[in-house]
Every structure is written in structure tokens, then in C-alpha cells.
Amino acid sequence: MVTKTKWLAGLSARRALAVMLAVLVVGYGVAAWVFSGMIVGPPQGRPDRRATGNAPAVTEVDQVYVQESVQIPVGGGIELAGMFYRHPNSAGRAVIFSHGRGGGYRQGKRFLQLLSEYACDVLLLQHRGFGSSSPALLTYGYYEKSDLSGVVDWLGEYAGHDPSQIGLIGISYGSAISLQVLDLRDDLAFVIADSTFSDLSSVVQHTAGRQFGGWVQMFVPGAIKLAEMRADFSFEDVSPVNAVAGKRTPILLMHSVGDRRGSSAFSEVVYQNATKEHAVLSLNDWGNGHGGDIRSFEKYSVVVDRFVEQHVPAFRNAASSLQ
Predict the structure, then answer these.
(1) Which domains does the chain have, with CATH numbers?
(2) Measuring CA to CA, which of 117, 170, 224, 277 is 20 to 30 A from 211?
(3) Short-list 133, 257, 119, 252, CA closest to 192
């Protein structure tokens, strides 16, 4: 009887242990699934609300351009929405602006005044999963870099712009996508990347720790695997730091040293892997947060102007000859 009692007690203990393990596994899976949705799910109801700082009023800038809403097919059944601003003196030059994960057209409009000084056309783009573009999960450049490269080609067909006269500007999420286009082509005028990340795994780990604390790191590997399955992509292949290696396209990397949402260290890592004679790193201590340096409009303009004059003089000279 004693032996049977011990056996039953042992069986109960094993069952309890099995139940505990099952609960832990299910709990881990649920938490990892939730976190994976936070990675690849497009933000909902989060319009960009940051101030435009001391940049001139957008209404004044709008008067310079002829504005047009466009839908751009980029393949695979994906269409991207955009606002195309034609400058009367563009002379074939254009810039494509890519927004951050929480931004959109309003975020891009901050740059219209900056770019109007170059007398170029401007396309404010909405990436897949945002606004009026095709719905999709986010892959941080894995698919979006092909979309953006397709927009460059579309701009040539639609408005006669040669890729060598097209520059890319992006903030945060959009800056990482813009840099990754260099994986696909080397015929662009320049890339300006404000507040990029270096690779997707690093920024996910950084963001998870910042938002939830160190305890959440145990769920990150599972969340990454589930995110890859849900959006059908590879974290390993989302890497601005690898995209810039050996490239001759002029690159300006800008980052606020006060960035707490991301980290200026990401831009430093990217710069270290770039071709130094064609890359500039500007770490700005202007009192701004993540992606907010455009609010220091005059200082921002000086950095961009210096970069253009040194690395893309034809872009500036063409504008000067028309003004």
C-alpha cells in the first residue's frame, strides 16, 4: 500500500510538472505571438504629431509646387500611394521621401521647404501597409526596398527623371529602407538617412528592452521567428549596415545624439561599414529626440547643403542656375 501511495504521488507530481510546462510553453507562445504582431503589424491610428519647429509654414511652400495624388504599381499586386510635388524649375531632378513607422505625408511635408531650395520635384511616399497604399505586414526593407526601387523606375517613366538625378531621403523606418535600396542599384544621386537602424535584430532587441525592460528579451527569439513566418521574410536579410558596404553612391547619415527611442550608435555602425570617401556622418546634439532634428531647421539645412555641395555638386549647381 505504501509503495502504491508513493507511485500515485509521483504520478501526480509528474502530471503537475507536465501541466506547468504546458502552461509555460503556451504562455511563451502567446507572448511571442503578441510581440511578433508589434513588429510586423502596421501602426493604427498613430498620425505623426510632432511640430515642424522653425521651418516656414507648409502653406507657403505648397504654393511653389503643383501637387498631385498618385498611385504607383510596384509589382506583386502592390500599389503605393504618393503625393507628387512638381517644381516649375526641376530640370529633371527629384527626391523621394520615405516616412518613419509612425509618420506619413505630414512628416514628409517638413522637408518640402528644405527641398524647395534645390528646385527639385518631390515625391512623398506611403510604403506598403500605410495610409492608402496596399495593406501588408511590415518587413523593414526586405520587400519595401524593391518597392522603392520600383518607384524610382516609375518616376522615370511618369515624369522623365533619370535615376542619376533622383535622391532618396528617409527618416527612421524610411531611412533604413532607403539605404537598403543600395542592395539593388547603384545609379542614384544620393541617399540621406536620418535616424536609421543598423540591422533589424539589433533594433528589435533595443526597442523591446527600452519599452518593456530586460525581462522581455527572453521572448525576442520566439517573436522574431514568428514575425518571419507571418510576414514571410528573413531578419538576417534586413541590414542597412550590409547594404552600404562598398557602395559609391553618396550617403549622408544623420542622427540625434539625444535619440532614446533608437540610438545614434546604429548610424555610427552603418557609417563604419560605408565607403568613407562617399559617406558623411552627422551626429547632432541639438536637443531633439528620434527623427526630430528637422525641427532645428536652419542647422539641418546647413548639414544637408554641405553634403550636397561636397558630394553631389551638380544637384545644387543645377538649382542655382535656375534661380
Answers:
(1) 55-199+238-322 (3.40.50.1820)
(2) 170
(3) 252
Chain position carrying cell 498611385: 71
- In degrees and rounded to multiples of 5, residue 180 shows phi and psi of -70, -15
Q: What is residue 51's three-state secondary structure?
A: coil
Q: At what angle do helices 313-322 and 297-311 cross, to 10 degrees?
A: 110
85-89, 132-136, 223-227: range with lowest mean pLDDT:
85-89
Q: How far apart are CA 133 and CA 137, in angstroms?
A: 12
**CA-CA-CA-CA torsion sign (248, 98, 119, 254):** negative
Residues with Cβ within 8 Å of 105's Cβ and at least 6 positions away in sequence, in order, are: 83, 99, 124, 126, 131
What phi and psi values does residue 62 have, to the nearest 5 degrees?
A: -55, -30
Residue 39 pLDDT: 92
Nine-digit cell at 280? Answer: 558623411
- The owner of cell 521621401 is 97
Beta bridge partners of residue 72, listed in sequence order: 80
Name the band, by pLDDT with cuts 50, 70 and 90, for residue 54.
very low
